[in-house]
Amino acid sequence: xxxxTKIRPRALIRASGGPRYAVALTVDALGTGLLxxxxxxxxxxxxxxSAPATGxxxxxxxxxxxxxxxxxxxxxDRGARSTVVAASMLVRVLGxxxxxxxxxxxxxxxxxxxxxxxIGNQAWPAAHAAxxxxxxxxxxxxxxxxxxxALRNAGLGVGALLATACLAGxxxxxxxxxxxxxxxxxxxxxxxxxxxxxxxPTTAPAATPAEETGKDTDTGTGTGTGTDMxxxxxxRMRALLAANVIYVFCLNVPEIALPLVLVTQLHASPVxxxxxxxxxxxxxxxxxxxxxxLMSRFSRRTMLxxxxxxxxxxxxxxxxxxSLGHGWxxxxxxxxxxxxxxxxxxxAGSATALVTxxxxxxxxGRTLARFELSTGFGLxxxxxxxxxxxxxxxxxxxGSLAAAxxxxxxxxxxxxxxxTQLSGHCHQARAGxxxx
Length: 436
Known about the structure:
GO terms for molecular function: transmembrane transporter activity. Helices cover 73% and strands 0% of the residues. The chain is mostly helical.
């Protein structure tokens, strides 16, 4: 069976929603990169809030923002696509406007602004995945989702670098960054809305003879697509959703766990933390699509389980690296972080793709919303879990993460979803437009 072996950028852009949508993603990511890393700093320096109050307000905004996900899922299941993406960007415009209008010392207005920003940040991934799932199929879809992630990470990285360069301007510069972020979100929303993509998920096409002979959706190298699965029941995915909460800890390892370990345990220069974060971003941008393309030779579920094994191995590597102490410890942690990033790339390239092929068309939105709910919950609790485990020593932190991730990988590998049959090895011609 042919597999994806070559990337064609134009076909990849088409499979991702088209040129205008790609520009919208880039502008949105740039805007997010300008503000998101410095939102805490904005609350402390511009609004003169205490650091604990600012952090709590931001956390509440993220957690409460998760409550919107069921509504987002139902909206997507009514066929909306580009409209939901645009709405997720527009609600962040409102958040930025509130941020700029908040007087110094008003923590509740800041919390409300963080809530709107959180709603937009939580709604966007599910809306984007549903849009891509509507315009592409099978392994072409996997590559398109990977391309969107690489593009977004590039935009976030560039935006963060621009914002860092502007920080010398003090509070005025932070306010200007917030204003530019709002304008970027507004422009991105207009571009996304202009795509005018609407789906009719309840009218799935009949299966072809080739589709009738397919295997389970998450196995093999078939190009089955959840949007062609008719009116079957929504997949439960209990083990997958629970495992995903643990998997997403890897996304906060470069930003939270490693800086904490390097500075407080190894007493290394903060430059190491910055270098690891930059290397993580560069590797994701450069390798997300090629690695996802290579993974088309294997089952999505198998690759997701493999990602857990790689992540667990990297956590054990961090445990070994921290035992080296000051001197060799920091370079060893930096080297192991590359393995952790590879695990992150494999996870990101298989997780959402697996969910899209498990979901029948009429519940694609709700299924993606449930998955993003687990992602958001994992991202919300991981900083607290990491900072709670770290004071108890490297074994408590890295040993616990490794054990939990291996358990999650085992659950993913062994979970069976009754009633989800492959829509087949269809759309190979479409997949061939991305690869040959």
